[in-house]
Amino acid sequence: MKGALRALLPGASVLIAAVLFLTFASEARVSDVASTYGLVVGGAGLALSWVFHRSRAFISLLVLGFVDIVAVDNPDGTVVLMALGTVVLALLGVLGLLRDRGVASRVGFAQTLVIGGLAGLASLLLSDAERVADFSDRAAILPLELVVWPGYPRLTIVVAMFALTAVAYGFYRYRGAVERSLVWAVILFLVAMHPEIGSAGSALFIMATGLTITLGIVETSYAMAYRDDLTGLPGRRALMQYLDGINGTFSVAMVDIDHFKRINDRHGHDVGDQVLQLVAKRLASTTGGGKAYRYGGEEFTVIFPGRRSEDALPHVEALRRAVEESKFAVRSWTRPREKPGATARSPKVAKRKVLSVTVSAGIADTEGDVSEPEAVVKKADEAMYRAKEGGRNRVEC
């Protein structure tokens, strides 16, 4: 349910807001908002995509701005927008299959040059009135009679289906905010292309398309700043921000992986990273309303708002047991990735080494003479070190 909700945001919200505004605002008002805020959205998106190395978003916003200038205010805007927009849909589909690079990098520059060149070439080709007129055929292509989209030329339907499939696959494969924004960008741009929406409506939905892509960049940059890349948990910066705003009673559990340096020394840092991911996964499922964060290195923090230490203890103890009972199979660097075939000549496959992982934890709360968040964290850290000195794989309050 949570994943489905994330897939809908923010694109669905932008779509609904644009539809409502187009329905209830005057045409002059829609045109004014689209022209004014379109520049703001486009400029902000281009700046953010440059700073955060999002070449696909940068290219998409440039192409959208180009279409807005060339097609929307054109005397034959409806037909030109449909023709040029069909090319842009194809470009968005291709971008959905690529990976982001720095805009100023060689790959990012090449992406911008190729996509921009294709958009420019399409504009030149479609300057011929006869070629543009070819898009006036609204018939469906066999055997696609059941998916006729009223108002769209047959070539646009095929290209749109390719673009939707490509960006959906990109989102399925990489699950990023920019990938999700490209799915909604194709949908919103399709609405902008519809001949019945009018020039003001087209400008509004092109702006909405750019806004969705820009919000995807903002979400990605937020994740880079506040979420730990390796484990997927919120990072230390997010923890400090949360503690700055917390009020009332709360408990803090500091959790540290036992003998983590030994794991790295014996099995390598790749195995160490996988152990961190394993523990993070268990922490993310902490019961009792606990919010897990990666504090740094092999150390994690779990916040229990509204709970005292004795209330949080059973949940931290359950977490400790869950980690202990999770057996981690170590892959040797000499072991082939593909399982060898079971033939008479095949040597007996060695048994995979299983690594036991445990954690030590310390809990503290705001009761007594400790109320400041930093002091509670320090007290929990001290309790965690007592757990390590007491034999590890235990919880101390």
Which terms would index this structure?
alpha+beta; Alpha-Beta Plaits; single chain; 397 residues; two-stranded antiparallel sheet; five-stranded mixed beta sheet
The gross shape turns out to be elongated
The domain tally reads: 2
Biggest sheet statistics: 5 strands, mixed
Regions with pLDDT < 50 over 5+ consecutive residues?
138-146, 333-340, 342-350
Per DSSP, the total helix count is 15
Helix share bin: 55-70%
The count of strands amounts to 7
Q: SSE order, as H and E?
A: HHHHHHHHHHHEHHEEHEEEHE
Q: What is the strand arrangement across the widest sheet?
A: 2-3-1-6-7
Share in β-strands: 5-15%
Mean pLDDT: 83
Q: How far from one another are the termini? A: 36 Å
Instruction: Output the structural class.
Output: alpha+beta
Q: Kindly provide the radius of gyration, computed on alpha-carbon positions and rounded to a whole number of angstroms.
A: 27 Å
Concise structural overview:
The chain has 15 helices and seven strands. By secondary structure, it is α+β, with helices and mostly antiparallel strands. The strands form two sheets. Strands 2-3-1-6-7 form a five-stranded mixed beta sheet, sandwiched between helices. Strands 4-5 form a two-stranded antiparallel ribbon.
